[in-house]
From TrEMBL, chains A, B:
InterPro entries according to UniProt: Beta-lactam/transpept-like (IPR012338), cNMP-bd_CS (IPR018488), cNMP-bd_dom (IPR000595), cNMP-bd_dom_sf (IPR018490), Glutaminase (IPR015868), RmlC-like_jellyroll (IPR014710), STAS_dom (IPR002645), STAS_dom_sf (IPR036513)
UniProt domain Cyclic nucleotide-binding: residue ranges: 469-584
Keyword list, A-Z: Acetylation, Hydrolase
Recorded family membership: Belongs to the glutaminase family.
SUPFAM superfamilies: beta-lactamase/transpeptidase-like, cAMP-binding domain-like
A family per Pfam: Glutaminase
Signal peptide: none
Key word 4Fe-4S present: no
Subunit structure: Homotetramer.
Catalytic activity: L-glutamine + H2O = L-glutamate + NH4(+)
UniProt protein name: Glutaminase
UniProt-listed CDD domains: CAP_ED (cd00038)
Superkingdom of the organism of origin: Bacteria
Amino acid sequence: MTSPLQEFLKQRHAAFKTDDSGAVADYIPELTKANPAHFGASLATMDGHVYEIGDSAVPFTIQSISKAFVFALALERLGQERVEKAIGVEPSGEAFNSIRLTTDNRPFNPMVNAGAIACSGLIHHAEGNGAFELIHETLSRFAGRKLDIDDDVYLSERATGDRNRAIAWLLHNYDVLKCDVDGVLDVYFRQCAVLVTARDLAVMAATLANGGRNPVTGEQIISPYVVSRTLSVMTSSGMYDYAGEWIYRVGIPAKSGVGGGIIASLPAQLGLGTFSPKLDDHGNSVRGLKMCEALSSHYGLHVLSRADDIRTCIIADYNATGLSSRRNRMPSELKLLEERSGEIRIVELVGALSFATMDFVSRRLAEGDRASFILIDLRRTPSVSDAAALLADKVIEGLTQRGAMLVFSGFDKSSPLWPSMAAWMERSPNVRHFGLLEDAIEWAEDQVIFRYGGFEYHESTSHLNEQSLLSGLSEDELEEIADLCHARDYKTGERIIHAGDSAASLFFLQRGVVSIKLQSGARLASLLPGMVFGEMALIDDKRTADVWADTPVQCLELSVDAYRRYRSTHPHCAERMMANLAKLLAGRLVLANTKVELLSAY
Amino acid sequence: MTSPLQEFLKQRHAAFKTDDSGAVADYIPELTKANPAHFGASLATMDGHVYEIGDSAVPFTIQSISKAFVFALALERLGQERVEKAIGVEPSGEAFNSIRLTTDNRPFNPMVNAGAIACSGLIHHAEGNGAFELIHETLSRFAGRKLDIDDDVYLSERATGDRNRAIAWLLHNYDVLKCDVDGVLDVYFRQCAVLVTARDLAVMAATLANGGRNPVTGEQIISPYVVSRTLSVMTSSGMYDYAGEWIYRVGIPAKSGVGGGIIASLPAQLGLGTFSPKLDDHGNSVRGLKMCEALSSHYGLHVLSRADDIRTCIIADYNATGLSSRRNRMPSELKLLEERSGEIRIVELVGALSFATMDFVSRRLAEGDRASFILIDLRRTPSVSDAAALLADKVIEGLTQRGAMLVFSGFDKSSPLWPSMAAWMERSPNVRHFGLLEDAIEWAEDQVIFRYGGFEYHESTSHLNEQSLLSGLSEDELEEIADLCHARDYKTGERIIHAGDSAASLFFLQRGVVSIKLQSGARLASLLPGMVFGEMALIDDKRTADVWADTPVQCLELSVDAYRRYRSTHPHCAERMMANLAKLLAGRLVLANTKVELLSAY
């Protein structure tokens, strides 16, 4: 199956290729050498997939498109105060190479030449001779590969760029440029001569669309604040004197360059890069513009068109009833947990957490505000906005103040929630974190059992009357079973059962703790004295999971052969054991079905 | 627990209330009567929750804020071509009451008085005397309640609005207004005098943020296209000569009115309404602006700041292995389904489907491109963008072309996907829809069994050797069991087992089909001849689900009492039956655990 988007790009590429209007830029002699037939486009997605069509691998100079990224770099390195003091953010209403400044003698915005030169000047001022190297390296990180430079174009621009030279000296006159004017111009001319392809531009645009993280390399290059401000100036001033029309008709922040490139960046959706050297009267690539417009109009894409349903962010919201933990509980503990099921509330979230979704979550949490333990699982929430983190902080404050224990699971230290969470854990015993939800549930259940006095931790039980598999057997019958068993001892860390082995026995645990684990190491359950493991040997001839000794372990092993001999002489007892096994399985089935229902209900 | 957002509004309200700067509007005599101390704010969420603080219930006139909604109404009713021909979308660079027009003699945009009067004119032209009534009704639907009108303000505006009168005549001169000028002005003056509260404005703004659907009433008022274009003109021209700064610093489309109101609308996140009569030099409410700025800066909210992870849209992607259906299968059918498990692929989606998520889904579907049956479950995808619907259409085309069967489940006819889906179902036998995923799986499994010749539909089986519960018993033993049973007949639609009854027997199905159902009517399983139901009576004394005859049914009923008598004389057979029951349950447990894992893995 061909991808629908690849097909779309192919069709539009073929259609727009026939448009021969416009003219190759000629204000720099070197640019006139471009091949007017070239036409390439590329679309990069938020998971790093890159679609390409036509001449998407042909290099050309980035020119004015560099302005957006150098502005971003300046904001990121020098901070908003310094940059915003030097350069405005209002559309100028004039051509990109206008020498006019605002009434307080600043460049109107960073997308006109004056503002871009001021930006390069700020970086030159801070970095000195390393300024261009930093810019070059940053552009390369946006593209995800080391970009080359077209020295001929650079020298051509330097030789003929007198208008920019005039702008630079005017900025120097008003103290906007505080340093060596020729040095700044050299940086500016060289940054415009960096070579990119349509594919590079797509990845660069996608990095802006992806909150500043390059979706191909995974590298975070600039902060979300800088992204939103860079896209803001692209929106208000990126497409020359066409801002109102552009946002109205296309609605995707964009920037073009006289080299024939255009980037368009739709937050959380896509990055588009196009290349075709023939420009319209405004200096925008004719075919590139058409591609932007077609993408927007065909798919109804627009930065102000967005519809989510915030309610899908909660995928499950339920009380633990003593059935959710992987630790097998004693019957009395299970009874207590069932009686106290309202004490533990589990909320599983899914998707990006934004202002709106976290507000929704905060209200849902406040609604059923009675549980003592509130477990919030975040393993399906890969991104958390600053707003969501701030709201979460207040939710923690509110819930801990009323004495609730808040237990988070399923996120790591790279999460934006981590710093605030770590601070909470340091100052409040009421906030905890577990890697796995199952561990969090187990811990919370232990706390409930401990709190309400139901803990029956049998350090050791040698008597088989605790075994639910043997429930209903008489003392004599239990003794006969015990006689058939062999006592076994295992050291901490020893594997008692190997998955894949043939299943020839079952074990009654008398002392210590064992864990049932998958071969991946994931724990399915942990068992305490009085419980049975390996019991599926009675109906299945193969082991399906490992069992490990977590502590020194004592148990009684009953071989299937011995059971079979016993069965022939004690058929009633055997029938009873099988009925007990069926009951054990029926209980686990109820548990599993409950979980399926919980996860499917939302 | 106090909600974090309520707390935020309270704190900021208290802080900004002390700001006494600005002046009440005085260009209309009636407006000077406003109480300068008033200050209210309200925030409405996408699920229809409304936060309020201060004087949020005090009515005031909507004034220029009406421009955004009347523009939306014009676009919605008259179509983009007619409206966009009459009115531009570029910022004017002049005051809101400027009489200057564009070079082709159109108003610059719908947010200045000239553009707004032109809008009212378009509606007046189309609706005649019903124009104001339509506007009034539309504003009321945005607010979710019938709004009043301040006749004194209306009469005051009409008596003093000579500048607007001049603008209207100029528009008439250039044929932008084609009808009765006084009639249009009357509509315009009355629309400005509609009374709203900060709460009303919040809901109106939230309706724009929510893709045109009022989140409180649930009513769809305008289309997503109209929403995005309305927010576009608010962004480029909504806050007077401050567009670049506003999008850069606040980044939330907004519109203010001289009555002291402001709306701010952040797509998919929130709607804010504020009211405080004192205005700054630009004519914007001082405290209202502060509230907008505080909300944006504190929470880092900005329309161009957005980060989702598109990969969370697929919550499960797996092959059916014959274990997923609720129909109990014959062993030979199960074997066949297991062998052919690659034939059925199930993809469960979650969250809003956008351009980016549907593209991701399309690539995921193309990756494992071998299944004959592709089941796509959409019950957790409450919204689908136009782009997603377009891409989905291409995906269907591609998959059906290669011969795959596409089966959708979990959405209804109100979904934006429905029209295209219905068209597909009409022209292709390869596209189907089921309400429930479980029904889709069952149908697909039936198809696989049918296709590969494994269908063993026993219309009737009177012999018990097919029964897995009795597996391993000799012919004589089976005959003895049969002798203990009573033959039963049930009519279509008859209830055989009642949930809650005591469980005193089990049934061997010989002819017909029965369904196991919850009391809600949800079907858990359907059974065919050769299968057992009510078998949990062997270990549980209560019925947990209903069993209904879907067709005329014949079965053998074995009472638990009879089983118990039989057990005492045939303990080996009883032990065998219990072991078979344990195996049945173990199989179901594997199924349930597999499903839990699938739903937890993403």
